[in-house]
Design brief:
- By secondary structure, this protein is an alpha+beta fold.
- The strands form 2 sheets. Strands 4, 5, 6, 7, 8 and 10 form a 6-stranded mixed β-sheet that branches.
- The termini are far apart.
Length: 277
């Protein structure tokens, strides 16, 4: 029995879902039945397809604690050639904070509760009891591995494992994309001496109604954002009364509904083009 297979069976008996890794810390390629992702798995093998194939062909989703699967024919061949053993932390109710360098370790020691620590080739893994959403690059040199991710097994580590703290969960919460409204310069209509929309009440009411229309959208958000931008520009786009602050309010409302800054910019630009501005 190969050393990786022996380790895998031992970890599986302790309730840790395992899978083999080849050189480079990546899962083995798709099995013949799943060649070229015929079963629906993605090329990076991190997302499972609908197949029930027992081969290690879907990264973290192939991790198992079933010794019958681990010692099955396709798996044994993979364990024989494996460079390392990996496990699915989320499948065991665990979260791994992967600290990739000395600066990241220093941050963790100053910011996170002490817990079980495993040394890695470049840094440390901090293990917590509790599963959460995985996220990469939550800070410089820091990844969080739990659900839908795998971590390399590097030994049991030292220290007592503690409960997953809120400060680690918060790492996976993305900050809203900063609003960067497109600077817009629109020409005044020839022959218009003064803008009839310059009264603050009229303009503010129009922007507020546009924000409300976007916020109330329950479907087709992108189309709603575009139509709203088009309506605002058709009313106020030629007289120069729109300011960056007004545009920022519209972009913020759209991004709160899930639109990206790029989509907002594209919708605004398309509306300008549609109106010949």
């Amino acid at each position: 029995m190969s050393e990786p297979l022996h380790t895998a069976l031992s970890l599986a008996s302790d309730g840790l879902p395992v899978l083999p890794l080849r050189a480079g810390k990546v899962p083995f390629g798709n099995c013949p039945a799943c060649a070229r992702n015929a079963c629906g798995g993605r090329p990076n093998m991190k997302t499972p397809g609908p197949c029930t194939c027992p081969a290690p062909c879907h990264g973290w989703a192939a991790a198992t604690t079933d010794p019958g699967v681990i010692i099955s024919s396709p798996w044994v061949r993979a364990w024989r050639d494996a460079a390392a053993v990996a496990y699915h932390p989320g499948g065991a109710g665990l979260t791994v904070v992967d600290l990739d360098n000395a600066e990241a370790i220093a941050w963790a020691r100053a910011s996170l509760p002490a817990t079980r620590t495993v040394r890695t080739t470049r840094g440390e893994h901090w293990l917590y009891q509790g599963a959460m959403k995985s996220a990469n690059a939550v800070r410089p040199g820091v990844d969080v591995k739990s659900t839908m991710a795998y971590a390399r097994w590097l030994g049991p580590g030292t220290g007592t494992i503690t409960a997953l703290p809120g400060v680690v969960r918060d790492l996976a919460v993305k900050e809203p994309t900063p609003v960067r409204p497109t600077a817009v310069t629109v020409p005044a209509l020839v022959g218009v001496a003064e803008c009839r929309h310059r009264t603050p009440t009229y303009l503010d009411r129009g922007i507020a109604m546009a924000e409300q229309r976007i916020t109330a959208a329950s479907s087709a958000v992108h189309a709603t954002v575009y139509r709203t931008f088009l309506a605002v520009l058709s009313t106020h786009g030629r007289c120069g009364c729109l300011t960056d602050a007004h545009i920022a309010r519209l972009f913020t409302a759209a991004q709160t509904k899930g639109e990206s800054a790029r989509h907002c910019t594209d919708a605004w630009t398309n509306a300008l083009t549609r109106l010949g501005l």
